[in-house]
Amino acid sequence: MSDKLWDFHGGIHPPENKTQSTQVPITTAPLPARLVIPLQQHIGQPAEPLVEIGDKVLKGQMICAANGYVSVAVHAPTSGTVVAITEHTVPHPSGLPDLCVIMDTDGREQWAERSPTPDYRDLERTELLDIIANAGIAGLGGAGFPAAVKLNPSQEVSIDILVINGAECEPYITADDMLMQERAAEIIQGIEIVIQLLGVKRCLIGIEANKPQAIAALEKYLLEHQLQQQIELVTIPVKYPSGGEKQLIRILTGREVPSGGIPADIGILCHNPGTCAAIYRAVVLGEPLISRIVTLTGAALASPGNLEVLFGTPVSELLAHCQLQEDKLDRLLMGGPMMGVALEDPSLPIVKTTNCIVASTRDELPQSGPEQACIRCGMCAEVCPATLLPQQLYWYAKSKEFDKALEHNLLDCIECGACSYVCPSNIPLVQYYRYAKGEIRAQEHEHTRSEHSRQRFEARKARQDQEAAEKEARRTQRAEAAATKKRSQSGATTDDAAATKAAVIQAALERAQAKKAGQQATAQDPGARDLKTTKPQPKQTEEPAGE
Amino acid sequence: MVAMSILPAILILLGLALVFGVILGFSAVRFKVDEDPIVEQIDDILPQTQCGQCGFPGCRPYAQSIANGEAINKCPPGGETTIHALADLLGKEFIPLDAEHGEEKAKTVAVIREQECIGCTKCIQACPVDAILGAAKLMHTVIADECTGCDLCVEPCPVDCIDMIPVQVGLSEWHWDKPSPTRLDRSALIATDATPEGQVA
Q: In the beta sheet, which residues pair with residue A262?
């Protein structure tokens, strides 16, 4: 066990509201008739569909292949028929549609061929990474970063500590808690695979103290398998947002992820227990990632709990399964109340990064009051876990002074919502930061585009100038050629031409003379004409020779 | 006596003047700046549509004239953001966009109605970024990714088959809007005035 814990700046203690969903064990959600499977459920390039409309697919069959290195494959969650590959609204704050594979399930749950490798310890590093990449594993903690990419850090950094993030600090969410309670074996075996891949010496599992059963379950497994030396279980104090990657690393190791950096920069890799369990299933059982644990909670649900849900299952079906009371429902959230986004459309599918659905009543999560003026109380700065100045960032975001916001490290904001939570003026601070971040990204994008346009414009100008220069060059060339020709004609180089010309003139003159003479002769004596006309002939041939 | 005491001071000052003169003279030659760097910086801020709406034949000429004191609010495609950036760079006050040169519009992209195109190549010659593809008497088409939405191809088209379509925001370009401004009505602030509807801000 680790003996020393560090603390991070700020943090808050919102009501946990976790017990509602931990009363019953994980159950499997009923198989829906139709699944809507988005091609992009992760960070990176969207996957590319491999199936066509009308294709029969088997459970676990790859239906979309990863498109590039930072991308994740998608597999059929169950057996059935592809009915459409079309745009459908996806879980995204914009509410915009994206490409999805829509399939009808056949209820037979017929598996495609699986290739389990229980003796993974003999496998090469690259072979293991291939298995994980082909299983379509994206980080299940929330961001959805491709696991195989994260497990293959660049050669320049050396990873010495693996951190497993079991803190689950956000209120309401208990998906990781229940997973750790019920599937400790899968998680720990997954961690062993990750340890083998990375070759790390130390592994720390950080769990908030409000999950004693999860801690006990993991501890029991570690003791039974003599792993407590290799994998340390650390109980951390309950404080939001201790489950933020950077905050948890600070708590467990005392190291600070540099501004703008990633944990790998300080030799640490952080994974979610769900991702580890998925890695175990992919490697040892040969099962790709086709389902996850989702917490369904909130006072508007009569039977909240954690469900094992196939990706693509519409939220509405899960709500019906948990006996949603429509009359009580006020707001539907995807994710927790601190960082989640409101769901407008309950037909949205569950994706790899969905960990929780909150169906809250009006009393439970009241709408915040109207935004009022900032009174500069400084409470936001006191609770900011990233030690930023939320108030300053708010001013800059509001007045669109994005360069100053950047100077105040806006991009280090983890959008945890602690500042908005404590703000006595009900200012939606995080929304301002999200807006500012989006604007900054858009402006950067615009700038690259305008740079590109400039290059094209300059290339075009250069081409036009060159064309004009070439045209000019050709024109001068032609003019020169003409001038030379003219010069040479008046010179002595063309004797023959001049001679011929002279001869022609001479001949014409003589013909004219002959004609005249002939006319005179015929008038006098027709017999003499022959003599006269034939007489100049020899002279004609002699003349050029004499010249 | 007085002259004797002043002399060293004069000599020292002359010596200093000489030394600094040499240093300044040397740096003037060694660190000579060929081009006005401010023009580069201004050009970098301008949106490079080369549309000429500012009245100058392209972004660089406008950048040059801004450096020479031209107003900074003549660029409709850049809009408010560009004016802010220029004001920051040049230490000027922000001024709203000059309506004479056009208004800030949503980003557009040119689209040729291809069945109507007669293949005259006039738009190809007008496009400042070579974003139109085609040949004489053959259909032309716009490379949407390269189009800056400058409108310059619309005018020369003899059959008027080019449309400027607003760019669709996809998932990758979408970002959060600015939170809507405070609705400070009485019912929202004073609890006793509040109706159930009024509470929902």
A: none
